[in-house]
Amino acid sequence: MASIQKTAKGWRAQIGKRGVRMSKTFATRAEARVWAAEQETLIEQRRVLSSGKRADFRAVLQRTLDEVTLSRSDQVRVRQMLRDPIADVMLSDIGPPQFAAYRDRRLLKVSPATVIREFRTLGGICTRAVREWQWLHIHPVKGVALPKEPERRMRRVLDAEIEAVSIAAGYQPGPLTTATAQVCAAFLFAIETGMRAGEIMTLDRSRITGRVAHLPVTKNGSARNVPLSPRALAIIDQMPPELWQGVSNRDALWRKITKRACVDNLHFHDSRHEAVTRLSKRLHVLELARMIGHKDIRELMTYYEDDAEDVAGRL
Asked: Does the predicted model carry a pTM greater than 0.85?
């Protein structure tokens, strides 16, 4: 119930409902009562927040960015959601139909795998909004049918392909002065370390101590240290002082390199698959998980691609 009290400046209305507390002073008691009744109705309908701001899904997304520690990829996803019409839906109106429409809009622009990852992020956001913030009565994402999980990509990088892209990029011993050669070096470095493209392209020499590269920010939100092989260190020595931070068009250059090398269907990220498979023969599974940056060792199976014939040869 609202409280209306006489003050030296007029009539003060105070509201305390569903965790929302608001107050405002008016010239007359009647004005204070009308305002209090209106605000209580809006609070009941989940249309205003404790700040008095409009209670739409944008408020949930923005509070997530402001208060929750997110991985870099989750931050990108949340900012993308802020640009989508889903952000303007009132919390009182939001539910599975609105998120199903969001799913369909996204499927017109991105792959099913990307939509699945976005909904995993949304699931965590809505859980917090229901349990901790109590901005939502029910979990609006549960019950939304997601696209079928795509087939796991199984792609090894052949030695002949490595040679072909190296020639096409102009990669050779000595200092690397062209962007194409540096992108090729990044691919080779990824095979040696299992590092993601974004981690490599933002690597700073100050983060390399001896044979270890320290990554303060990674995809899963945690820092990690990556041991460097002699081959990885040799690639570092070929690079300019700023390493790969001077290369701004890595994706376009990689497509140019593979096209020139006549190598089909080779993605830059395939280097991570290749790295996990190669390193699995030299490292304990726990060492490998820590080096790659997987908190759950089962995630390694996403990238492990060893050939059955090779395994049979080791039996």
From this structure: no
